[in-house]
Amino acid sequence: MTAEDLLAQDFGTIADVIRAQAQVLGDKPALVDARRTVSYAELDALMDRIAAALQRDGVGKADVAAICASSSVEYGAVFFGTLRAAAIVAPLAPSSTPESLVVQLNDCGAKVFFLDRQLADHMAGVLDQVTATRVSLDGSDAGQPLEDWLAPEGSKPVLHEVEPDQGFNIIYSSGTTGAPKGIVQPHRMRWGQIRRGVYPADAVTMISTPLYSNTTLVSFLPTISNGGTAVLMPKFDVKQFLELSQKHRATHAMLVPVQYRRLMEYPEFDRYDLSSYRMKFSTSAPFSAELKRQILDRWPGGLVEYYGMTEGGGSCGLQCHEFPDKLHTVGRPLPGHDIRLIDEDGQEVPQGEIGEVVGRSGAMMVGYHNQPSKTSEAEWWSPDGQRYIRTGDVGRFDEDGFLTLMDRKKDMIISGGFNIYPSDLEAELHQHPAVVEAAVVGVPSKAWGETPVAFVAVKDAVAADELRSWVNGRVGKTQRLADLQIVDALPRSHIGKVMKRELRDAYQGPATA
């Protein structure tokens, strides 16, 4: 059966699709990094050897293998090889603390742990607590070198039937709102994503965000399943991204907004030939309308913003090149996605009113690994008994069905009984020519319960008091900032989300706030 036939089915596995692609595409490059290129035929054979080795080491159907390393050809092959063994992949973030990584490894029950030298150095003080078999992706002594660990050439794994609701991967949340939770995404969810048809067979996709991020996987997986080529960057660098895009004649890219901003600010950006680009994507963090316009004006090809959660549920998409008057929104629900807004009592709000975003689709997590109570908290059930995932975001639909996000529900500030949306204040701050980025958080106030405080990075010298007075003269009385602090940069997660909890926790004054 051809890959096209497989992808036309209601359900299948990406491991089977790659096998079918390899039979036709053979020597076509599948994975590319700075050191080597692996063809589809080579990837397929390597997946077999990895799957056979995993099964040899006791990794059975629905067991877990964990990966924590920089993006590389080896990383991608191990990811797919684990799936061929009918096991579950747990891609972990190297930016996590060593203690948190041990907790995650124990929580997912990983039997084999793939890592590299850099990660081993990071975990040096706790590696003796890791019970999983360690395999080094870079040939270092962080574990048994991958080449030595692999099953012999020509090895074939035992193939198991995979059910739609079996776990595909476990992605741990960034921990910006507390201890990381293991989000179990099923094969059914991933199958729906790779069948969208967004990435054609001749796609050359720049992979510049980490492979442990859902942001990356929704671009990486369909590129390979549809027969394209993925160019892997171990770390994002503006100049290198542009050079690789030009060299490989890249057609697609998934970037987070902070990466787009850095690219647009790069003085040499317009000197690179990016004419091969057909489509660019973004997700994971707020994406300003002004930045979207710059990209549309200066970078060939379309631009699509996706809004959704790693947990799945409902997603929206904004084709920026088709709706230039809707750049302040995150678009409309994708086909087959049901997005609703609910109030504090769990009741749907009328069109045009603000409510928490909940969503339902074929792409939904099974739940949080080993945390049924957290799973229940993340669910909303409609009056007719349908399961939805709560986003924690607050938004409003306009008359055309486009969703405008206000803020995270937990980030909304209630000051003197009035609701203050930090995004409104951040938008005003971004109007000042000196402001590069801004974040507003609520801090405790004896007088008001909470009061807004801004943290701002600037490109030109401007006094904090002057900037605070400027923005307070442009907003309503209840929205006025109690304090504004100039910072070098905002703290961000690995996918560019501002870590507002860090700002809130570190804030020390002023005493009158």
Assign a percent range to the helix content.
25-40%
C-alpha termini separation: 67 Å
Question: Largest sheet, if any?
Answer: 9 strands, mixed
The domain count comes to 3
CATH superfamily grouping of the largest domain: ANL, N-terminal domain
CATH topology of the largest domain: Rossmann fold
* Overall mean confidence score, pLDDT: 94
**DSSP strand count:** 27
Q: List unreliable stretches of 5+ residues.
A: none
DSSP summary: helix tally: 16
How are the strands ordered across the major sheet?
A: 2-1-11-10-12-13-14-15-16
Description of the molecule:
Helix content is 29%, strand content 25%. The protein has 513 residues and is α/β, with parallel strands linked by helices. The chain folds into three domains: 3-27 and 35-186, ANL, N-terminal domain (Rossmann fold); 308-407, Luciferase, domain 3; 412-506, GMP Synthetase, Chain A, domain 3, CATH 3.30.300.30. The strands form six sheets. A nine-stranded mixed β-sheet has the order 2-1-11-10-12-13-14-15-16, with helices on both faces. β21 and β22 form a beta hairpin. It is globular. The N and C termini lie far apart (67 Å). The mean pLDDT is 94.
